[in-house]
Design goal:
Number of helices: 11
Distance between the termini: 23 Å
Largest sheet: 6 strands, mixed
Strand order of the largest sheet: 6-7-8-3-9-10
Helix content: 25-40%
Structural class: alpha/beta
Shape: globular
Bound molecules: adenosine-5'-diphosphate, magnesium ion
Number of strands: 10
């Protein structure tokens, strides 16, 4: 019996190799949630918006210098989950989180944790580039100033330059640094936001669909950048593009209705998923 769509590359790969898939009813995570050198560890994380549970008992490690992609249908909890990693959900009224999340072994939900430095250590880049209505220089310098990372103007200049170099934007903007109207394209604005995140010395960078508002060329530039950045940072990227997940990430996590269904090496997830729900999604039957 022919069950899988003929036109899907993934389905053809899967079809060659009939495996016993974990049934749709089983919502326990399949695959290894741990890594050897975790930067962050999440255990039994639940998130509620009022009465509604958006994240259900999720456990997952974020590795050192890895790019991990979060995929799954709209509304499955990807953004909610990554917002737990730097306590961004704290800003949402009625949002409640239980479980444990550690960064380098330290509980980030401990009552003694100051969220301001935490959000520098675990930075975030959003779907829509959101530069401040200020010059390029001021966009980057703002964070290091409030975190007291520079003793003087020369040090601040240095941080601005290195952050822009790391974000692959320096050559394009070095003569426009002080101009009040940045006049940057969408892709350049997103790289400016990445530079701003880098400027405060993060360990982990969270990216929530960072390319959805960009054209294919700007997207390719950001994807190349992610490749370079993972040498220094751990990157968690939410994407609705499976092609993007397979291009940029080493591990992929598949979410479905608040459950973490499956996690594993990206190539395995896209060619030999172990869970029926993952297969449904990657073959285009769901989402
Ligand atoms: P995704 O990023 O995968 O599309 P979200 O994390 O945005 O999913 O949403 C997961 C679930 O939580 C959805 O049912 C969504 O409606 C709900 N949700 C998200 N943000 C809020 C919020 N601020 N208040 C109430 N419910 C929310
Ligand atoms: Mg989202």
């Amino acid at each position: 019996m022919e069950e899988l769509p003929q036109d899907s590359i993934q389905s053809q790969i899967i079809h060659k190799d009939k495996r016993d898939l974990v049934s749709r009813d089983n919502r326990e995570t399949v695959g290894d949630i741990t890594v050897k050198n975790p930067r962050m560890t999440c255990r039994s994380v639940d998130v509620f918006y009022g009465e509604k549970q958006a994240i259900k008992d999720i456990s997952l490690d974020i590795g050192n210098h890895e790019v991990i992609a979060m995929i799954g249908p709209s509304g499955c909890g990807k953004s909610t989950f990554i917002r737990c990693l730097n306590r961004m959900n704290d800003t949402i009224d009625g949002c409640r989180i239980t479980g444990e999340i550690k960064l380098d072994g330290i509980d980030i939900y401990d009552k003694n944790i100051d969220v301001v430095p935490l959000r520098a250590q675990v930075g975030m880049v959003f779907q829509k580039p959101n530069p401040f209505p200020k010059s390029i220089y001021d966009n980057i310098a703002y964070g290091p100033k409030i975190h007291g990372l520079a003793q003087n103007k020369a040090e601040l200049d240095e941080i601005v330059e290195t952050s822009l170099i790391k974000a692959g934007l320096w050559e394009e903007v070095k003569d426009l640094l002080e101009h009040p109207d940045t006049g940057l394209s969408g892709g350049q604005q997103q790289r400016l936001c990445i530079a701003r995140t880098i400027a405060v010395g993060p360990e982990v960078i969270l990216m929530d669909e960072p390319c959805s508002a960009l054209d294919p060329i700007a997207t390719a530039v950001i994807e190349d950048l992610i490749d370079e950045l993972c040498e220094q940072y751990s990157i968690v990227i939410v994407t609705h593009s499976m092609q993007q997940a397979s291009r940029v990430s080493q591990r992929t996590a598949y979410f479905h209705l608040g459950d973490l269904i499956e996690v594993g090496p990206t190539a395995q997830i896209f060619t030999r998923p172990k869970h029926q729900l993952t297969e449904d999604y990657i073959t285009g039957r769901f989402g």
